[in-house]
Design goal:
alpha/beta; eight-stranded mixed sheet; 11 strands; three-stranded antiparallel sheet; globular
């Protein structure tokens, strides 16, 4: 089966287009990459050491929690903000388990998606999240294995961002949708469990580097309360960066001391950005490279 969005991918070694023969990707320069048995494409840039990402336990917790539906308003807000009439793929660096990208593709049945992450555990799940999603092992801090202007929309959800690369892969008129937590996000759990505090200047620090290449089109603050079982609360705590700073047994014991149900606040901001220097009409769609060798 040919990867969805193959025509938008680029060789991480030479940036030339990739083609697919059976379970191997290759470029005209002779670089080749065997697809992982779990379905993702290993396209780390040369010299990148980012081969770990979220652990298996973090990914399991995130997958389980996001499937509960507690974050569905966030997923829906991201998908709505990312809607576009421009041709091209939807790309998400730092896609994790692919929930946000898959929801965006669900709302755009004519789109294909590329989810990039450094966690092999997350990519295994992302590859199964949607038949129109291509999961790629790649480092957001290096050149992304995506062709210039291949993306109609880019998602950045609770993840690191490289503004220059996000701007490079967006086509004329393309948009960037960013989801960031606000200081009171999960504040009850943060206080009760000693989780990592959210930077009170998070939104401003996110916007600053983006303003050189993007202009804000729309901002929406989402705030609502959720009622969790203790199991939900544990998954929510264990899926984020705090899990790396807490002993799992200590975290479980702390959650067991919480009342049930556990109430906490979800507070995040969705911002839609557009490239400053690319506000013209849609560009021509990217065509597959000639002689690519994959099935029609």
């Amino acid at each position: 089966m040919t990867l969805p969005a193959l025509q938008a991918l680029a060789c991480p070694n030479c940036t030339r287009p990739l083609a697919q023969t059976d379970r191997r990707l290759h470029c005209p320069a002779g670089h080749s990459f065997d697809l992982a048995k779990h379905g993702y494409a290993p396209l780390l840039a040369p010299g990148s050491n980012a081969t770990t990402g979220d652990t298996a336990d973090q990914v399991e917790a995130r997958d389980t929690f996001l499937d509960t539906g507690h974050y569905d308003p966030l997923l829906e807000a991201v998908a709505a903000a990312a809607a576009t009439d421009r041709p091209g793929a939807v790309v998400e660096p730092g896609c994790g388990t692919g929930h946000y990208l898959a929801r965006t593709l669900q709302e755009a049945p004519d789109r294909e998606g590329i989810g990039l992450d450094t966690s092999k555990y997350a990519l295994r799940r992302a590859a199964r999240r949607s038949p129109r999603l291509t999961a790629v092992l790649a480092d957001a801090w290096t050149r992304l294995p995506v062709r210039d202007g291949a993306a109609a929309a880019v998602l950045n959800v609770f993840a690191p961002r490289n503004p220059a690369e996000l701007a490079r892969i967006l086509r004329p008129g393309g948009t960037l949708t960013v989801l960031t937590p606000r200081p009171d996000h999960l504040r009850e759990l943060v206080d009760a469990l000693g989780l990592l505090q959210i930077d009170p200047h998070k939104t401003r620090r996110t916007a600053g580097p983006l303003e050189a290449a993007f202009t804000t089109e729309h901002t929406e603050d989402l705030t609502y309360r959720i009622r969790l079982t203790r199991a939900d609360a544990l998954h929510l705590a264990a899926m984020g960066p705090s899990a790396r700073h807490h002993d799992p047994d200590d975290l479980t014991a702390a959650v067991d001391r919480l009342p049930e149900p556990v109430e906490t606040t979800v507070a995040a901001t969705v911002t839609r950005w557009r490239r400053r220097d690319q506000t013209t009409g849609p560009a021509d769609p990217i065509a597959p490279p000639p002689g690519d060798g994959h099935s029609p």
